[in-house]
Protein backbone atom coordinates (compact mmCIF):
# COMPACT_ATOMS: atom_id res chain seq x y z
CA UNK A 1 0.00 0.00 0.00
CA UNK A 2 1.53 3.30 -1.04
CA UNK A 3 -1.05 5.52 -2.73
CA UNK A 4 -4.27 7.37 -1.96
CA UNK A 5 -6.03 8.19 -5.22
CA UNK A 6 -8.16 11.33 -4.78
CA UNK A 7 -11.15 11.40 -7.15
CA UNK A 8 -9.26 9.45 -9.82
CA UNK A 9 -10.50 9.30 -13.41
CA UNK A 10 -10.35 5.50 -13.47
CA UNK A 11 -12.65 2.94 -15.01
CA UNK A 12 -14.05 0.41 -12.58
CA UNK A 13 -11.69 -2.26 -13.98
CA UNK A 14 -8.70 0.04 -13.46
CA UNK A 15 -9.90 1.00 -9.99
CA UNK A 16 -10.26 -2.61 -8.87
CA UNK A 17 -6.77 -3.44 -10.13
CA UNK A 18 -5.30 -0.69 -7.96
CA UNK A 19 -7.41 -1.66 -4.96
CA UNK A 20 -6.21 -5.26 -5.25
CA UNK A 21 -2.65 -3.91 -5.26
CA UNK A 22 -3.36 -2.31 -1.88
CA UNK A 23 -4.14 1.25 -2.92
CA UNK A 24 -7.15 3.28 -1.74
CA UNK A 25 -9.49 5.56 -3.71
CA UNK A 26 -11.28 8.55 -2.18
CA UNK A 27 -14.16 10.33 -3.92
CA UNK A 28 -16.11 13.53 -3.15
CA UNK A 29 -19.79 13.35 -2.25
CA UNK A 30 -22.13 12.70 -5.16
CA UNK A 31 -25.89 13.11 -5.54
CA UNK A 32 -26.59 9.44 -4.77
CA UNK A 33 -24.34 9.16 -1.69
CA UNK A 34 -25.84 12.37 -0.31
CA UNK A 35 -29.32 10.99 -0.95
CA UNK A 36 -28.46 7.86 1.03
CA UNK A 37 -27.02 10.04 3.80
CA UNK A 38 -30.26 12.03 3.89
CA UNK A 39 -32.34 8.86 4.02
CA UNK A 40 -30.20 7.54 6.88
CA UNK A 41 -30.45 10.83 8.76
CA UNK A 42 -34.23 10.81 8.52
CA UNK A 43 -34.36 7.43 10.24
CA UNK A 44 -31.72 8.34 12.82
CA UNK A 45 -33.22 11.69 13.76
CA UNK A 46 -36.75 10.33 13.95
CA UNK A 47 -35.52 7.77 16.50
CA UNK A 48 -33.51 10.25 18.59
CA UNK A 49 -36.19 12.93 18.55
CA UNK A 50 -34.97 16.19 20.10
CA UNK A 51 -31.57 14.72 20.97
CA UNK A 52 -28.56 15.36 18.74
CA UNK A 53 -27.60 11.84 17.56
CA UNK A 54 -23.89 12.71 17.63
CA UNK A 55 -23.96 13.59 21.35
CA UNK A 56 -27.06 11.70 22.52
CA UNK A 57 -24.99 9.12 24.38
CA UNK A 58 -24.46 11.71 27.12
CA UNK A 59 -28.21 11.91 27.80
CA UNK A 60 -29.03 8.19 27.64
CA UNK A 61 -28.10 4.97 29.36
CA UNK A 62 -26.36 2.32 27.28
CA UNK A 63 -29.47 0.07 27.21
CA UNK A 64 -31.62 3.03 26.10
CA UNK A 65 -29.12 3.88 23.38
CA UNK A 66 -28.94 0.29 22.20
CA UNK A 67 -32.73 0.12 22.07
CA UNK A 68 -32.82 3.21 19.84
CA UNK A 69 -30.24 1.74 17.47
CA UNK A 70 -32.24 -1.46 17.23
CA UNK A 71 -35.31 0.58 16.28
CA UNK A 72 -33.84 1.83 13.00
CA UNK A 73 -30.58 0.11 12.02
CA UNK A 74 -32.14 -3.18 10.81
CA UNK A 75 -34.88 -1.22 9.04
CA UNK A 76 -32.29 0.87 7.21
CA UNK A 77 -30.27 -2.16 6.17
CA UNK A 78 -33.24 -3.99 4.70
CA UNK A 79 -35.19 -1.06 3.27
CA UNK A 80 -35.85 -1.12 -0.48
CA UNK A 81 -34.89 2.56 -0.68
CA UNK A 82 -31.44 1.75 0.72
CA UNK A 83 -30.83 -0.76 -2.06
CA UNK A 84 -32.07 1.69 -4.69
CA UNK A 85 -29.67 4.37 -3.51
CA UNK A 86 -26.72 1.97 -3.41
CA UNK A 87 -27.57 1.09 -7.01
CA UNK A 88 -27.54 4.80 -7.86
CA UNK A 89 -24.16 5.28 -6.16
CA UNK A 90 -22.57 2.43 -8.09
CA UNK A 91 -23.94 3.65 -11.41
CA UNK A 92 -22.54 7.13 -10.68
CA UNK A 93 -19.19 5.47 -9.92
CA UNK A 94 -19.03 3.75 -13.29
CA UNK A 95 -19.70 0.16 -12.22
CA UNK A 96 -20.95 -2.28 -14.86
CA UNK A 97 -24.60 -2.99 -13.99
CA UNK A 98 -24.51 -6.48 -15.50
CA UNK A 99 -21.28 -7.56 -13.78
CA UNK A 100 -21.37 -5.71 -10.46
CA UNK A 101 -23.05 -7.26 -7.41
CA UNK A 102 -23.56 -5.49 -4.09
CA UNK A 103 -24.73 -6.32 -0.59
CA UNK A 104 -27.07 -4.24 1.55
CA UNK A 105 -25.65 -1.11 3.19
CA UNK A 106 -24.83 -1.28 6.89
CA UNK A 107 -25.11 1.66 9.24
CA UNK A 108 -22.29 1.80 11.80
CA UNK A 109 -22.01 3.70 15.06
CA UNK A 110 -18.78 4.25 16.98
CA UNK A 111 -19.62 5.78 20.35
CA UNK A 112 -17.17 7.75 22.46
CA UNK A 113 -15.25 6.26 25.38
CA UNK A 114 -16.67 2.76 24.80
CA UNK A 115 -20.13 3.89 25.89
CA UNK A 116 -21.54 1.10 23.72
CA UNK A 117 -19.10 -1.09 21.80
CA UNK A 118 -20.81 -4.47 21.57
CA UNK A 119 -23.64 -6.00 19.62
CA UNK A 120 -25.30 -3.55 17.27
CA UNK A 121 -22.57 -0.97 18.00
CA UNK A 122 -19.62 -3.36 17.91
CA UNK A 123 -16.24 -1.63 17.73
CA UNK A 124 -13.97 -3.55 15.38
CA UNK A 125 -10.34 -4.10 16.26
CA UNK A 126 -7.77 -4.39 13.46
CA UNK A 127 -8.97 -6.97 10.94
CA UNK A 128 -9.35 -7.85 7.30
CA UNK A 129 -12.83 -8.53 5.95
CA UNK A 130 -11.37 -11.58 4.23
CA UNK A 131 -11.08 -13.20 7.68
CA UNK A 132 -14.89 -13.11 7.83
CA UNK A 133 -15.56 -15.25 4.72
CA UNK A 134 -15.34 -12.28 2.37
CA UNK A 135 -13.95 -13.11 -1.10
CA UNK A 136 -10.58 -11.70 -2.12
CA UNK A 137 -12.23 -9.68 -4.91
CA UNK A 138 -14.53 -7.90 -2.45
CA UNK A 139 -14.42 -4.10 -2.57
CA UNK A 140 -15.55 -2.01 0.42
CA UNK A 141 -17.28 1.38 0.13
CA UNK A 142 -17.42 3.61 3.24
CA UNK A 143 -18.68 7.14 3.96
CA UNK A 144 -19.75 9.26 6.96
CA UNK A 145 -23.36 10.25 7.67
CA UNK A 146 -22.40 13.23 9.86
CA UNK A 147 -19.13 15.14 10.03
CA UNK A 148 -16.36 13.04 11.51
CA UNK A 149 -12.79 13.67 12.59
CA UNK A 150 -9.48 11.90 13.03
CA UNK A 151 -10.40 10.83 16.55
CA UNK A 152 -13.54 8.92 15.63
CA UNK A 153 -13.04 7.60 12.11
CA UNK A 154 -11.50 4.34 10.95
CA UNK A 155 -7.83 3.65 10.31
CA UNK A 156 -5.87 1.68 7.74
CA UNK A 157 -2.68 -0.10 8.76
CA UNK A 158 -0.49 -0.23 5.63
CA UNK A 159 2.37 -2.14 7.26
CA UNK A 160 0.24 -5.27 7.18
CA UNK A 161 -1.01 -5.15 3.60
CA UNK A 162 1.54 -7.74 2.50
CA UNK A 163 2.36 -9.28 5.88
CA UNK A 164 0.75 -12.46 7.20
CA UNK A 165 -0.70 -12.04 10.70
CA UNK A 166 -1.54 -14.98 12.98
CA UNK A 167 -5.28 -14.76 13.52
CA UNK A 168 -8.38 -16.75 14.42
CA UNK A 169 -9.92 -17.00 10.95
CA UNK A 170 -9.21 -20.74 10.69
CA UNK A 171 -12.16 -21.49 12.95
CA UNK A 172 -14.57 -19.09 11.27
CA UNK A 173 -17.38 -20.05 8.90
CA UNK A 174 -19.95 -17.36 8.16
CA UNK A 175 -22.82 -19.83 7.88
CA UNK A 176 -22.08 -21.34 11.29
CA UNK A 177 -21.78 -17.82 12.72
CA UNK A 178 -25.16 -16.76 11.33
CA UNK A 179 -26.86 -19.97 12.46
CA UNK A 180 -25.54 -19.60 15.99
CA UNK A 181 -26.62 -15.97 16.01
CA UNK A 182 -30.16 -16.99 15.08
CA UNK A 183 -30.17 -19.60 17.86
CA UNK A 184 -28.98 -17.06 20.42
CA UNK A 185 -31.67 -14.60 19.32
CA UNK A 186 -34.29 -17.20 20.21
CA UNK A 187 -32.71 -17.89 23.59
CA UNK A 188 -32.30 -14.60 25.48
CA UNK A 189 -29.85 -14.83 28.34
CA UNK A 190 -27.69 -17.51 26.72
CA UNK A 191 -24.12 -16.14 26.55
CA UNK A 192 -22.64 -15.55 23.12
CA UNK A 193 -19.38 -17.52 23.09
CA UNK A 194 -18.62 -17.04 19.41
CA UNK A 195 -15.09 -15.87 18.70
CA UNK A 196 -14.61 -13.24 16.01
CA UNK A 197 -11.47 -13.62 13.90
CA UNK A 198 -8.86 -11.26 15.29
CA UNK A 199 -5.07 -11.09 15.61
CA UNK A 200 -3.68 -13.47 18.20
CA UNK A 201 -0.93 -11.02 19.13
CA UNK A 202 -0.73 -7.25 19.51
CA UNK A 203 -0.16 -5.37 16.26
CA UNK A 204 1.83 -2.23 15.63
CA UNK A 205 -0.98 0.04 14.52
CA UNK A 206 1.36 2.86 13.51
CA UNK A 207 1.96 4.01 10.89
CA UNK A 208 -1.72 4.32 10.09
CA UNK A 209 -3.82 6.24 7.59
CA UNK A 210 -7.06 8.00 8.54
CA UNK A 211 -9.15 9.45 5.72
CA UNK A 212 -11.30 12.44 6.70
CA UNK A 213 -13.82 13.07 3.95
CA UNK A 214 -16.89 15.32 3.78
CA UNK A 215 -20.29 13.87 4.58
CA UNK A 216 -21.07 11.44 1.76
CA UNK A 217 -17.45 11.37 0.55
CA UNK A 218 -16.62 7.76 -0.30
CA UNK A 219 -13.51 5.77 0.62
CA UNK A 220 -13.09 2.64 -1.50
CA UNK A 221 -10.69 -0.16 -0.54
CA UNK A 222 -9.98 -3.86 -0.78
CA UNK A 223 -11.49 -6.27 1.73
CA UNK A 224 -7.92 -7.44 2.37
CA UNK A 225 -6.89 -4.08 3.85
CA UNK A 226 -6.07 -4.21 7.54
CA UNK A 227 -8.35 -1.61 9.13
CA UNK A 228 -9.87 -0.81 12.49
CA UNK A 229 -12.21 1.48 14.37
CA UNK A 230 -10.17 4.31 15.88
CA UNK A 231 -10.53 4.42 19.70
CA UNK A 232 -13.02 7.24 20.12
CA UNK A 233 -12.43 9.82 22.86
CA UNK A 234 -13.96 12.80 21.06
CA UNK A 235 -17.22 12.88 22.99
CA UNK A 236 -19.05 12.39 19.69
CA UNK A 237 -20.53 9.28 18.09
CA UNK A 238 -19.47 8.55 14.53
CA UNK A 239 -22.25 7.42 12.19
CA UNK A 240 -21.23 5.89 8.87
CA UNK A 241 -22.46 3.68 6.05
CA UNK A 242 -20.61 0.89 4.31
CA UNK A 243 -21.41 -1.73 1.71
CA UNK A 244 -19.50 -4.16 -0.48
CA UNK A 245 -19.27 -5.10 -4.13
CA UNK A 246 -17.87 -7.91 -6.23
CA UNK A 247 -17.41 -8.14 -9.99
CA UNK A 248 -18.52 -11.21 -11.92
CA UNK A 249 -15.34 -11.35 -14.01
CA UNK A 250 -13.20 -11.36 -10.86
CA UNK A 251 -15.31 -14.08 -9.26
CA UNK A 252 -15.19 -16.33 -12.30
CA UNK A 253 -11.42 -15.87 -12.62
CA UNK A 254 -10.85 -16.27 -8.85
CA UNK A 255 -8.74 -13.13 -8.87
CA UNK A 256 -8.49 -10.27 -6.40
CA UNK A 257 -6.19 -9.22 -3.58
CA UNK A 258 -3.50 -11.63 -2.34
CA UNK A 259 -4.34 -13.93 0.57
CA UNK A 260 -1.60 -14.33 3.16
CA UNK A 261 -3.47 -15.15 6.34
CA UNK A 262 -7.18 -15.84 5.82
CA UNK A 263 -8.05 -19.47 6.56
CA UNK A 264 -11.82 -19.19 7.03
CA UNK A 265 -14.42 -21.23 5.17
CA UNK A 266 -17.86 -20.39 3.88
CA UNK A 267 -18.62 -17.36 1.74
CA UNK A 268 -20.80 -14.28 1.99
CA UNK A 269 -21.56 -14.32 -1.75
CA UNK A 270 -25.16 -15.41 -1.24
CA UNK A 271 -25.80 -11.93 0.22
CA UNK A 272 -25.13 -10.10 -3.05
CA UNK A 273 -27.52 -8.57 -5.60
CA UNK A 274 -26.83 -7.74 -9.24
CA UNK A 275 -26.73 -4.01 -9.83
CA UNK A 276 -28.91 -4.19 -12.93
CA UNK A 277 -31.88 -6.11 -11.55
CA UNK A 278 -31.19 -7.40 -8.00
CA UNK A 279 -30.74 -10.99 -9.23
CA UNK A 280 -28.49 -13.23 -7.13
CA UNK A 281 -25.20 -14.82 -8.10
CA UNK A 282 -25.37 -18.29 -9.69
CA UNK A 283 -25.39 -20.98 -6.95
CA UNK A 284 -22.67 -22.96 -8.73
CA UNK A 285 -20.35 -19.96 -8.64
CA UNK A 286 -21.06 -19.35 -4.96
CA UNK A 287 -20.28 -23.00 -4.24
CA UNK A 288 -16.77 -22.56 -5.67
CA UNK A 289 -15.97 -20.28 -2.73
CA UNK A 290 -17.38 -22.32 0.15
CA UNK A 291 -14.13 -24.15 0.89
CA UNK A 292 -12.11 -20.96 1.35
CA UNK A 293 -9.13 -19.63 -0.59
CA UNK A 294 -5.57 -21.03 -0.64
CA UNK A 295 -2.86 -18.92 0.96
CA UNK A 296 -0.31 -17.06 -1.15
CA UNK A 297 3.43 -16.94 -0.65
CA UNK A 298 4.74 -14.63 2.05
CA UNK A 299 6.30 -12.15 -0.37
CA UNK A 300 4.29 -9.66 -2.37
CA UNK A 301 5.41 -6.82 -4.62
CA UNK A 302 2.62 -4.45 -5.65
CA UNK A 303 2.21 -4.00 -9.38
CA UNK A 304 1.06 -0.39 -9.11
CA UNK A 305 3.59 2.40 -8.48
CA UNK A 306 6.15 0.03 -6.95
CA UNK A 307 8.90 2.61 -6.76
CA UNK A 308 7.01 5.27 -4.81
CA UNK A 309 7.30 5.22 -0.99
CA UNK A 310 4.16 5.55 1.10
What this model shows, in words?
This is Phytanoyl-CoA dioxygenase family protein. It comes from Hymenobacter rigui. The chain is α+β, with helices and mostly antiparallel strands and 310 residues long. It has a single domain, classed as Sandwich (Jelly Rolls), CATH 2.60.120. It contains seven helices and ten strands. The chain has helices spanning 12-20, 31-48, 62-78, 80-92, 174-185, 248-253, 283-287; strands at residues 4-6, 24-27, 100-102, 106-110, 139-144, 154-156, 218-222, 227-229, 238-247, 273-274. It is globular, with a radius of gyration of 19 Å. The termini are close together.
List keywords for this structure.
single chain, 310 residues, alpha+beta, Jelly Rolls, 8-stranded mixed beta sheet, two-stranded antiparallel ribbon, 7 helices, 26% helix, disordered C terminus, Phytanoyl-CoA dioxygenase family protein
> What is the tally of beta strands?
10
Helix and strand composition category: alpha+beta
What's the level 1 CATH class?
Mainly Beta
Number of H/I helices: 7
| Whole-number total of structural domains | 1
Beta-strand portion reads 5-15%
Sheet with the most strands, sense and barrel status = 8 strands, mixed
Organism: Hymenobacter rigui
Protein name: Phytanoyl-CoA dioxygenase family protein
Explain the layout of strands and helices.
Elements lengths: L3 E3 L5 H9 L3 E4 L3 H18 L13 H17 L1 H13 L7 E3 L3 E5 L28 E6 L9 E3 L17 H12 L32 E5 L4 E3 L8 E10 H6 L19 E2 L8 H5 L23
Parallel strand pairs: 1-2
Antiparallel strand pairs: 2-7, 3-9, 3-10, 4-9, 5-7, 5-9, 6-8
Helix pairs in contact: 2-3, 2-4
